[in-house]
Specification:
316 residues; 8-stranded antiparallel sheet; elongated; 5-stranded antiparallel sheet
């Protein structure tokens, strides 16, 4: 008996098309899953990078605010050169005066004189050697400055090291300025955001502390009647207070920063904002912080950071 076989039997065209369709669905699903995971990883990476940047930059800002007025004694006439905190450039920049610059170890520490003029201090607590010292007496008045490290006069004096390149307080205190600039803005930032920069004593340029900043504002809390209770909160620094009044009344310095979190995400829409004739903004404690002036800001995540710091070293 002879069996017949069909040597031409194979897959039909319909079976091949169905198989290709199923394979294409699987590949498409795998591709979109990969793209979704990649976007998520990229967003998380950018977010982590910004978080690390914020930790370092904000800590330096906090330390500068904490040392507002540090080492600045009272001259017989306290002029604007001794204004411990100031709003400049139409409120767009914050200027802080202090003998201590937290990025210069030679300005950190103090010395104690309790002997005759021209002698070495009896107690020295300096981070690094520095013979440039400004001295304050036990009533807070300036008793002179030296560049030889020796006590300038008799009695009990506290000496504060200073940078000889200082531009404030007659050359004995540093002027630290915080301001916004869009120079060298990272590519993941919205193009209408800024870097928060810090510069000391009018040095060229500045050191970036924080990127992707949409707005930056600062206020003060004041004790107007000097009863150790805050009477006015979140007052704009308008320089109407005299240097002496500001020393006595300043209780806290508040800094508000509106920053971008993560990168551009076309699938995300930011909704927590209000609008007025000046643009779109977020309000915190009555302070308006403005978002970038373009419609694509909605595809970024935004966060307000507030620092509220009590100056620890103001000589009253």
């Amino acid at each position: 008996m002879r069996f017949k076989t069909d040597r031409n039997k194979g897959y039909s065209l319909i079976e091949v098309l169905i198989t290709l369709f199923i394979v294409s669905l699987i590949l498409s699903a795998a591709y979109f899953t990969y793209v979704s995971i990649f976007k998520s990883m990229k967003g998380e990476s950018e977010s982590v990078e910004l978080q690390m940047e914020k930790i370092v930059g904000l800590e330096l800002l906090r330390l500068d605010l904490e040392h507002v007025g540090y080492g600045i004694g009272k001259p017989l006439t306290i002029g604007t050169d001794y204004l411990i905190i100031e709003s400049i450039n139409d409120g767009k920049e914050l200027l802080i005066r202090s003998t201590l610059n937290n990025t210069n170890n030679s300005t950190i520490g103090w010395v104690l004189c309790n002997n005759n003029a021209g002698n070495d201090p009896v107690l020295v607590e300096l981070e690094a050697p520095n013979d440039n010292l400004v001295f304050v007496d036990n009533e807070g008045f300036v008793a002179g400055s030296v560049n030889d490290g020796l006590c300038p006069s008799d009695g009990i004096l506290i000496g504060f090291p200073f940078d000889p390149a200082s531009t404030g307080c007659g050359g004995t205190c540093s002027e630290i300025i915080y301001y916004l600039s869009n120079t060298n803005l990272p590519s993941h930032c919205h193009p209408q955001t800024y870097n928060l920069l810090r510069k000391v004593n009018n040095a060229p340029g500045g050191n970036p502390l924080l990127s992707c900043v949409a707005d930056f504002k600062f206020t003060v809390d004041l004790d107007r009647n000097e009863d150790n209770v805050v009477d006015l909160r979140d007052q704009i620094i308008d320089n109407t207070l005299s240097p002496a009044e500001l020393r006595l009344q300043l209780k806290k310095i508040n800094v508000y920063l509106l920053v971008q979190e993560g990168g551009f995400n076309p699938d995300y829409e930011f909704k927590n904002y209000s609008s007025d004739s000046d643009g779109n903004y977020i309000t915190v404690n009555g302070i308006k912080l403005y978002l970038p002036d373009s419609s694509d800001f909605k595809h970024y995540r935004w966060k307000v950071i507030k620092l509220s710091v009590k100056p620890m070293s103001i000589i009253k």
